[in-house]
């Protein structure tokens, strides 16, 4: 049962509805300052996962190779292109009176589609829930997403809630994929996978507080590489030094 995914989708729905209804009551300074807190929370979620890694060299290698692959394949651009396609039907959703231009509205809509549907934390959480049944990451993410959706809905309206539909489809697909993968894993592979996801959450936090705009979307392929590299490291490399 994908409890965490369901809760995450519901948090976006209710957060978007609340922000669309009450958004005019919040000041711009409040929206900016609360976003900084979201970033700190994302970083705090990532640190415990990193500290539990079983094979540090394997995780570091996976992050470097995975990010290099993402940059080479222009993974970020592909995600943005997919979000642009999803944005077209959503942009027709009835809106209240907007205080931003149509171009800014469409740009913001693409940004939040990427944020909710292709975030490293969401992908990590969905795969973790599918493999281990641990939905705490997605529940913690749901708290952040509720308020994030509300803040964005303050500017672009109730359409934010509709993003819960493609988000659920993406995350549930990952959940089913992870269920099939889990029997092939070992405890050390799971720990290294969680550590890799922790690095993505840490990078996401730095982006949210605007310290450094890490290429988090391009880092996503590392999530696919970390478990095979962890297995190779444990099976072939470690015995050489034994």
Automatic annotation (TrEMBL):
Keywords per UniProt: Membrane, Transmembrane, Transmembrane helix
Alphabetized InterPro entries for the sequence: DUF554
Regions crossing the membrane: 6-25, 32-50, 56-73, 105-125, 137-161, 168-185, 221-241
Official protein name in the record: DUF554 domain-containing protein
Organism domain of life: Bacteria
């Amino acid at each position: 049962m994908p409890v965490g995914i369901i809760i995450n989708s519901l948090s976006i729905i209710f957060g978007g509805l609340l922000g669309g209804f009450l958004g005019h009551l919040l000041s711009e300074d409040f929206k900016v300052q609360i976003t900084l807190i979201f970033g700190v929370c994302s970083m705090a979620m990532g640190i415990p996962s990193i500290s539990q890694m079983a094979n540090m060299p394997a995780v570091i290698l996976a992050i470097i190779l995975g990010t290099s692959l993402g940059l080479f394949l222009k993974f970020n651009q592909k995600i943005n292109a997919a979000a642009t396609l999803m944005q077209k039907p959503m942009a027709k959703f009835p809106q209240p009176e907007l205080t931003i231009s149509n171009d800014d509205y469409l740009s913001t809509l693409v940004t939040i589609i990427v944020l909710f549907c292709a975030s490293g934390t969401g992908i990590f959480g969905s795969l973790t829930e599918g493999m281990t049944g641990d939905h705490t990451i997605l529940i913690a993410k749901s708290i952040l997403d509720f308020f994030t959706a509300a803040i964005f809905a303050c500017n672009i309206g109730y359409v934010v809630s509709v993003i819960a539909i493609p988000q659920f489809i993406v995350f549930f697909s990952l959940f089913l994929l992870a269920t099939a993968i889990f029997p092939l894993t070992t405890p050390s592979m799971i720990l290294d996978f969680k550590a890799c996801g922790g690095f993505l959450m840490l990078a996401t936090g730095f982006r949210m507080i605007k310290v450094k705009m890490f290429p988090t979307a391009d880092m996503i392929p590392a999530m696919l590489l970390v478990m095979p590299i962890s297995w190779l490291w444990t099976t072939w490399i470690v015995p050489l030094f034994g």
